[in-house]
Amino acid sequence: MSPSAARTWLAALVALAVFLVAWKLVVVVGGYPVFILPPPETVLTRFVGAWADGTLERHTAATLVEIALGFAIGAVLAIVVGYLLARSRLAERLLSPYLVAAQATPILALAPVLVLWFGPGLAARVVICALIVFFPIAVATMVGIRAVDADLLELGRSLRARPGQVLTTLEVPAALPSIFGGLRVGVTLAVVGAIVGEWAGADQGLGVLVNLARGSLFDIPLLFATLLTIALVGVVLYLAVLAIERRLVGVR
Amino acid sequence: MSAGDGGDGGDRRLIDRLLEPDALRAQPPRVANPVVDPDAPRLPGHVELLGIAKAFERGRGPARPALADVELVVPGGQIVALIGPNGSGKSTLLRIVAGLIRPDRGEVRIDGAPITRPDARIGLVFQEPRLLPWRTVRGNVAYPLELAGAPRSVIDDRVTELLDLVGLDTSADVVPSRLSGGMRQRAALARGLALAPEVLLLDEPFSALDALTRDRFNLELLKLWNRMRTTIVLVTHSIQEAILVADRVVVLSPGPGHVLADLRVPFDRPRRLAMLDAPEAGVLAGRIRELLEAAA
Question: B290 to chain A nearest CA, in Å?
Fold first, then answer.
């Protein structure tokens, strides 16, 4: 590890320690009971326990399936539509009002309707996930494709590149950093979509577990352990997208 | 559209041409200076510009004429410098020859066949290197070959050869952002030569380089020419560069551009920098400067 990387890690650890100490202080000084704000060590113990007995594992797995399917479907559709929006004025005029309207309508309000249409199964949650990731990725793709250097496109023409070759060798690589900007936002929104979808009707998933812990189980440390898990899922997925981006975009 | 009408066959021929072991080696001997001998047999890369005119639309106003009736013949293997003030349509003319822009009137022919779209026999090097920033130098030089559908083994051999030729063999796996401006332009030149063109079009290729580097690059370009004997049309702002490199200097008028003068450079090859100090060079430079000033 290089000295600068070591310093970064050290700083991150210090920040985490400060956060935990502040949390503990708030609990002790404020004198909050466990059902309002449990201290960090109680949440951590419950977190480890819930993973050990399989509770968190089962619900996390269900949520991850929804995120993976919803994100994949939403991202692929968004990239295709984003490309069309960038290259066709007509497509942009026709589609963009609906896209903006869909984005402006809170997903929380749409979720019950979607569950009504697609049933209480996996499908509704995948659709909700796909819907919430769609907009940022479509816009990022559109912006990226529009920004492709006209000089490079002229180079492609001078080398007699066919339309498919222009797409794969010029437009996509040139727009990749922008598309990944959209994917990064999209993947964190996919987590939100999955949880919202589960609230609107599901029997498994981290969103369901939040409701259970708060309601029938009344296990507030478990509620916090679940929130911690959701946050970790978001961070890990974000870092995964970042790693893929580093690999595909590379040094430019 | 373009792939249907013989495009595949053309690529097949192209690949066969690249497969010849001597694709980059010295070509059969040619006459030293075809311009002095009008009855010399036509060599490949014979470029004819017949009455080229082009105007560009401007919003609602009248179209702005860029080129008016340009007539020019460049025999195969000759080097011609196009010089002219800004707005004389030099770059437009080059793009018309490259098949990127259709002229309003007139026709470009290469070896007698009209050019209506980009053609593998033409290599184009732009003013800026225009490298793909996500590809290494090797990947950039391989790009035209990949687009033409050449097999991997052919591409690898040819790219190695080209990089060697322009002196980039040690920087093959570096991305363009890590290279100096001069090295980027070398890579762009190697890419322009990738398909073994008969005609090489250079649009002020070394204008971003300092004067000393520029002289060196021009001499290197002439060494390359000596091995490949392609026709070269060089657009330039520099009178000195035109005299150093070209067999003929064609002076264009301010827009709409047409040929003001077609001047022979009185030097043999190989060229040396010292030739620029010869009295003939001074006379020719003075004549070109006079034409450019009178036209401005």
Answer: 34
